[in-house]
Amino acid sequence: MKVLIIGAHGKIGQIVSKKMSESSEYEPTAFIRKSEQIPFFENLNIPTVVASLEDSVETLSKDIKGYDAIVFTAGSGGKTGDDKTLEIDLDGAVKTMIAAEKTGITRYVMVSAAYADERSKWDATGIKPYYIAKHFADKTLKDSKLQYTIVRPVTLTDEPGEGTVGLKSIVDSLEKEISREDVADVILNSLKEPNTIRKVIEISAGDTPIEKVVKSA
Amino acid sequence: MKVLIIGAHGKIGQIVSKKMSESSEYEPTAFIRKSEQIPFFENLNIPTVVASLEDSVETLSKDIKGYDAIVFTAGSGGKTGDDKTLEIDLDGAVKTMIAAEKTGITRYVMVSAAYADERSKWDATGIKPYYIAKHFADKTLKDSKLQYTIVRPVTLTDEPGEGTVGLKSIVDSLEKEISREDVADVILNSLKEPNTIRKVIEISAGDTPIEKVVKSA
Description:
Chain A has 217 residues and is of the alpha/beta class. The first copy, chain A, has eight helices and eleven strands. In chain A, the strands form two sheets. Chain A has a nine-stranded mixed beta sheet with strand order 3-2-1-4-5-6-10-8-11, with helices on both faces. In chain A, strands 7-9 form a two-stranded parallel ribbon. In chain A, helix 1 crosses helix 7, helix 3 crosses helix 4 and helix 4 packs parallel to helix 6. Chain A is globular and about 40 Å long. At the A-B interface, helix 4 and helix 6 of A face helix 4 and helix 6 of B.
């Protein structure tokens, strides 16, 4: 499966890239923003596309063409202003959806955030603009014709993965955490599991093997 | 027709309020953000609702209930950050759409901006985040069940209205202007003209009487 990882140099993107490079089931390509990020992927034998989510749909369509699936794990991050939250997390993401539809890519895995549909929780997060952007990017994806999976983890940690997670239906607080490695494994497993198509999967740390979680999502 | 004007103290909102107060066809109510804005509407004999677009959908539903139509002409403006562009122009607007659907208001006139669907023009405007917010607010409105009219003027001026406008199909540059008073008249006329329902009307200064423009929109 040829997968384009958009935001491959981000924290989750790096783990997804590494895991895919170690598996015979995926042929990953890294969509990255800066050429100085290339060596990381050369070391993993992963080809790169250096491009920007601020490019036009037409330009992005050329970058995106020919893959079986897209994993979107890009984000403007906390160091830039909310202009970039609008331009990258919202409109940048939506432009890749339009480009995917135009170029015939149907499978699209979006890394979102738990509570992206629950406005009442946004104020307490301290990053309300980010949640608004994610909410509307996800909404656009749900309204599209793409075979999406929207993965919504709770607060992320850099702890090693456990190979098990829990569905958010059993999580009741924003404080609950999940490791980025487990999120990466949910992404890889979702790509292989048709049951996750057109589903939103809200996950936290938990006891259920990831293969089982994606099968019952 | 009982109309709630959201953003009634804005430049277009004030003109809409004044025109409605002078007509027997409308019963306007002003949705405003600050109590010091009340006297302006008292002078026009227009009742006010002081509330915030940062409130929850539940709270907004109570404020919004009972009107025949909503005119949304609020905006966070250029003096606040892009966090407010996300919170007011995008999510604030969408919350009023959800509240309208919940409370049975079907008619919704949105004041948007020309080129809100043309990404290639956004960079040149210098206010790209605003265009992204308006684009997604409009998209949400178009995807809703509301009987919307989306009015998209080109660059606004404070010149007196001419009573005539042109449809944007004949406009080819962002430099072209239109007076806020003419935009206000397009709003009032749209509310009376069923032909404008589920339409996007892009307008500039022009020679066609406004009644005729809304009939052929």
